[in-house]
Each structure stands twice: as structure tokens, then as C-alpha cells.
Design brief:
With 198 residues, the protein is an alpha+beta fold. The chain has helices spanning 23-31, 48-55, 93-99, 140-146, 184-193; strands at 7-11, 17-22, 35-38, 45-46, 62-64, 69-71, 75-78, 116-120, 135-139. The radius of gyration is 21 Å and the shape is elongated.
């Protein structure tokens, strides 16, 4: 992955996480004066010229230009935008795996994505559809054991009832742990404010 494609946390002017952008997009906003860099150590802010100057002697990953190097930012704050981005959660394999925590919904085993499958709770051969309420993550063993049966017919039960994920609707930023420690302060509120299902 190119340095320009790395993730940068975007805050609105009220210091609330609203998006994750590429470094390329963040640098464009910074250069045009629509954003400032938030320093990860003390949360001080820098415009383009002051960030460029501060980057010359700082450690970290850089973007090099003909005349200078610019440290890749971890967080930017928008100077004018104070709203929130609302997004509909996409129905795809990745979000189903994220919703279920990369955990088999029958036996509870947590595994890498390559070792998991998707299972129709009500099999397609029995009228089941590919919807949030009918698809769960399953390990290969449980999926094979269940086969074309309903869970109760196979003597299995689900850990939780499947449904549309309830990620933070107020910001549209999914809680991403472990990317940068500096993000935690801004994502922890989203983590605690996330509505949980039954």
C-alpha cells in the first residue's frame, strides 16, 4: 500500500470523528486550508505550512516532494464542517464478518477470515434469502454439519440473532481498533455510544 493510501482519521470542527480518509485526500484538504493536522502527542493543530516545517525534524513516515518532506498525518480536523456523515451499512461479506466479530455463530470459535464461511440460517434450498437476518459467519465444520438444515434440525443454536449492524449512526465511522493509538481518544466515545442489539 502506498503511503498516500493510508488511513487518516477525520474530525469535524467539534473534534468528533466523522470519517476515515486517505492520506492523499487529507493532504488535499490540508493544502487548501480546509483542514489542519492534529499532532498525535499533544493534539495541537497545524496548518499546511506549519506542519511542513514541523515535519522536517520529526520522526515518522513521510511523503517526499522536490523541496521537502511532510510527515504523514494520523488525524486531521476540518476547519469548517461541523456536521456528521451518515452512511448506510453495506451488505457485503466484509461487513457480515465484522458484524459477527470473525466468530462462528454456532460454536463461537474466532478465526481468520480465510477459515470462515457464510451460512444461510434458513438454507436457500428451503426458501432462505441473502439478507442481514438470514446470513451468519460459520466455521467450515459447523457449516458442513448444518448442511441444508435449519439450526434446530441440526441440533445447533445461534450465539445471537443476526440482523443489520448498528454501527455508530451519529458519525458513520466504524470503530477501528489498533490502527493508531492516537485515534482511541476520538473513537472511544463512538465505541461507548454505539447502540447494542438484544
Amino acid at each position: 500500500m502506498s503511503g498516500l493510501d493510508r488511513a487518516v482519521l477525520v474530525l469535524n470542527r467539534s473534534w468528533v470523528a466523522v470519517n476515515v480518509a486517505s492520506v492523499r485526500r487529507a493532504m488535499s484538504l490540508l493544502y487548501r486550508g480546509l483542514a489542519q493536522v492534529v499532532h498525535p502527542a499533544d493534539f495541537s493543530t497545524y496548518d499546511f505550512s506549519s506542519w511542513t516545517e514541523a515535519s522536517q525534524h520529526a520522526r515518522g513516515d513521510y511523503i517526499r516532494t522536490l523541496h521537502y518532506k511532510i510527515r504523514i498525518p494520523e488525524i486531521i480536523i476540518l476547519t469548517r464542517y461541523s456536521g456528521f456523515v451518515k452512511r448506510k451499512v453495506a451488505f457485503n461479506r466484509r461487513t457480515i464478518f465484522e458484524r459477527d466479530g470473525y466468530r462462528c455463530q454456532y460454536c463461537g470459535a474466532k478465526m481468520p477470515m480465510d477459515d470462515l464461511t457464510l451460512d444461510h440460517v434458513t438454507p436457500r434450498s428451503r426458501g432462505g434469502h441473502s439478507t442481514w437476518d438470514n446470513i451468519v459467519v460459520a466455521c467450515v465444520g459447523c457449516n458442513t454439519r448444518k448442511a441444508n438444515k435449519l439450526p434446530q434440525e441440526a441440533g445447533m443454536s445461534l450465539l445471537k440473532k443476526p440482523g443489520r449492524p448498528k454501527w455508530p449512526a451519529h458519525s458513520g465511522v466504524r470503530v477501528v481498533r489498533g490502527l493508531y493509538a492516537s485515534w482511541e481518544r476520538f473513537l472511544s466515545q463512538a465505541y461507548w455510544d454505539t447502540e447494542l442489539s438484544e
